[in-house]
Each structure stands twice: as C-alpha cells, then as structure tokens.
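Interim report to the steering committee. The following record documents the input for Permease of the drug/metabolite transporter (DMT) superfamily (299 residues).
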Amino acid sequence: MNQNKTKGLLFAILGSVLWGGSGTAAQFVFHHQSIDPIWLVGVRLLTAGSLLIVYSFLKNGRKIFTIFYTKSNILWLILFALLGMVPSQLTYFLAIKFGNAATATILQFMGPLFIILALAVGSRTLPRRIDVISILVALIGTLLLVTKGNLGSLALAPLAVFWGLMAGVGQANYTLIPRRLLKNFDAALVTGWAMLIGSIPFAKIIITNRPASIDPASILLIVYIIVGGTMLSYLFYLSSLNYLKPDTTGMLSSFEPLTATLLSILLLGVHFGLAETIGGLLILTTAFLQALPTRKKIV
C-alpha cells in the first residue's frame, strides 16, 4: 500500500470516528444535562461555520467572498443551508434526544438510499438491480433495528424512528443540493458559509435558551461536538477524497455508526441485542453493496 493511500485511509477513518463520537457526546449532554437540541444545533452551526470560514480565509484570503458575486450562487447556498445543512443536523440531534446515538447514526446512514430514490425519480429511470437490493436490505435492517425482532411493536420511541429516518433524508439533501457549488468552490468554504447562514434562524434561541448551568464535563463535550465532531471530522473526511475514490470513502464512513454504537454501549450503557445488531449490520452492508462494480452489457 502506497503512502498516499495509507494517508487517505487514515483521514477517512479518523473523520468518521470523530463524527460518530459526537453523537455519543450529544446523547450524554441531552440525557444528563437537559441541553436543548435546537440550542446546541444553533451553537454548533454558528461556531463550526465561523471556524471553517476562518480556516478558508487563512487558506484563500478574500476569495472566500467570491461565492456571493452571482445571484445563482447565493440562491444555491441558501437552499443548501436551509434544506440540507440545517435539516441534516437538527433531525440527527432530535433522533438522539428521543432515542440514542447508536440507532440515530445507523438510521442516518440510510441517506445514500434516499439519494438513489431521488436520482431515479429525477432522471425518470428505474434504479439499478444493486440499488433495489440495497434498499431491500436496508429496509429489513431498519425493521429489525426499530422492533428488536418483535415485528408487532416498536422498541424505539416513534419520534426516535421518525427523526432518524428524517436524518437520512437530510443527509441526502446535504449531498445532492450543493453539487453545483462544489464544482467551483472549495467544499470547506461552501460548508462554512452554509453553516453560518443556517445559524441565522437559531439566533434568538442561542441567546434566550441558554442552559442555566452546564457542568465542566458537558462543556468539554460541547466543545468536542463543535470542534472535533464537526470541523475536524469534516476536514479529515474531505482530505481523504484527495487520496481515495469516493466509493472507498463511502465504505469507510461506516465507522460513524460503528463508533457511535460501541461508545454508546461501553460508556452510556445502551443495550444492543441480537436483532438490533443484525439490523444495524444489514444497514451498514448497503455501503459495500453500492461499492460493488456493475457489469456492463455487451452489445
């Protein structure tokens, strides 16, 4: 294995692990400190967005403002912020609030399947055979995960399931909407501005819904969620794309739910039975199914 590929693998795994850890950290502050998820999302967007813009400014100087030179760029940036960035983060944190980090991260991992469906509808073509298989495998896995094998009832709170699936939809929007912008602008810059714009609706909540008191452990975890679980995880993951193919990074992103699950079990006492374990593994399998090469028809 060459040095560049090793570096890419390290960046992709580290970025995914940092993101998965942020979910477990969020679960702790939600359940033990009664932190409002909406307030935390607002603070996360504002702070992480500011850090990414500073990073981009140090890298590119005043070029960071060129994204606002055309109306179409501004429109796509606002759409990305309000329909991609905010929903993907808010629904994920709400899924953790009403459930736990492990199941929320696994359900969010279904985002690529929503992308498959959206692209099929947009292009008016049927999904590939491997896409259909991926969707069926993910649905079976989700059913096992949310029912713990008892198909007659939900083992998770309905709101946890709903927000977890919405997190997958938000993740799909997060991937699809900014494609035009990413052709011309650095991904860190696009994400930074989208986070700052997305934080605007939360401005009043950030000020008025501040927790009365936060213990030192929760403060450190919030700092980790913003810096490690958002800014650094994103930058590491982006850096991996310079050395690895997208399908490889997609498979390595499975370290997100694996990290969240292991940390939730080891540190927060979340129990995963056989049915949930099988269900989670089936959902993660879809990343590997999507990476399989498809045979071309011979004419």
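The mean pLDDT is 85. The committee is asked to note this result when reviewing the revised timeline.
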